[in-house]
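call fold(seq) -> tokens
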Amino acid sequence: MDVFWVSLFFTAVTAYLLWFTFISRSLRGPRVWPLLGSLPGLIENSDRMHEWIAENLRACNGTYQTCICAVPFLARKQGLVTVTCDPKNLEHILKTRFDNYPKGPTWQSVFHDLLGEGIFNSDGDTWLFQRKTAALEFTTRTLRHAMARWVSRAIKLRFCPILRAAQLEAKPVDLQDLLLRLTFDNICGLTFGMDPQTLAPGLRENGFAAAFDRATEASLQRFILPEVMWKLKKWLGLGMEVSLSRSIVHVENYLSKVIDTRKVELLRQQNDDNNPHDDLLSRFMKKKESYSDSFLRHVALNFVLAGRDTSSVALSWFFWLITQNPTVEKKIIHEICTVLIETRGNDRSKWVDDPLAFEELDRLIYLKAALSETLRLYPSVPEDSKHVISDDVLPDGTFVPAGSSITYSIYSSGRMKSTWGEDWPEFRPERWISTDGRRFILQEQYKFVAFNAGPRICLGKDLAYLQMKSIAAAVLLRHRLTVVSGHRVEQKMSLTLFMKYGLKVNVHERDLTAVVDGVRKEAVGVNCNGNNCHAAGSSVVVGGGEVVFGVD
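ret:
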């Protein structure tokens, strides 16, 4: 009998090893181990996950397949993960066969308690209905005005005074924290018309903001654990699941009060043409359709989640890159000064009276290029995943079976030589600008996917650029930033590409004298014809407009 069981054991082991040898040869990318799959590699590189994925993709020409569970019947289905950054594959996944690649049950289960069936956590008809409804609102100019109003007020009354105080007191600040507070106040104002004032003097804690942060962090923790484990912890009321439940109650109670108050206000003002509420929540509530309070809460939460972290994280990496690339910084300052001399005159005190207006921001071509280059190298959402509904073959020939998952690496897509050329590691905004320097060049949609692509492309892309340009211009016009000596700038392994230790910077006063003198000389040179110059004034074309200077 003992011989029988020993023989059976060795037969099973031999059969498994033969199967494992066969399956591992069909996979490319990181090493796959018996039973554990590629988990050892994931754990070993957990502190540099995105770069590790990018290295594997560069070695495999943009696509590889691995399994996180090397067990028969699972390795080619639920345990199989296809990782890609090939632009043709991305177009296939995000557009051509969009319906075959939804977010899927795993993603939806993780975020359901917080986001419900909101636009960023739903698929199919539920998603399509919300997408169409939201798209109508995002195309209105009044929403852009609303965003500009919230951003300008926060910059002028809160953000700039904090930086000015840090400069005068010679105290470093955590710029990432300030930017998170700024964008949170802005997105809450734009979404449901309430200001949580997290960037108010004293940087006090706001109950809603704190609860939202805890709920988001606890939801992200679920990705680390197997679904069975976190669901068991939820049922038993253990660990982060307790914090998640309490935080969601706090968040929903806060939003319920906002909705109830807004209903009363809208009822009183339904015959008033000068209705002051232009936030997204009010726009949904004004529609003929009758939406439940639960639906409205999830609408608000989904947009807050999408609009808060993404812009602040992008700006954090932008300012860090600027401190490392002084030549780029000089070009941005030169562009801002050139525009402001035309729009606000030579009195520099008027340049900082108010944040830049629409028309001024639209002309900052080089600044937009620098922000886009930042997002190429450091996208706010570095990786995203999809569930495979039915068997399919990607354009590069990779077979993806039903039930498996696909990760498309946004981080890696901006770091491929095959896509961006030999100079892909360089921070070079010029790759986004036409040779004459007057136009911003739109890259192919599936080559640059920092704002997603296809039917799910970010609705708030233009608003995000508006906010980022406004904040970046306000800071760089007034201050020169330097990273605190010894401060470590590292990526935090999360769904959003935070800086692990924040961004500690020293704030210095910006001296614009040399830049303005350079702009003046450049302008004079443009209008000099041989030895004949226009003494009364001169002009230079920037961003599609003519800039006129008086010559002293």
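The first strand starts at residue 63 and ends at 67.
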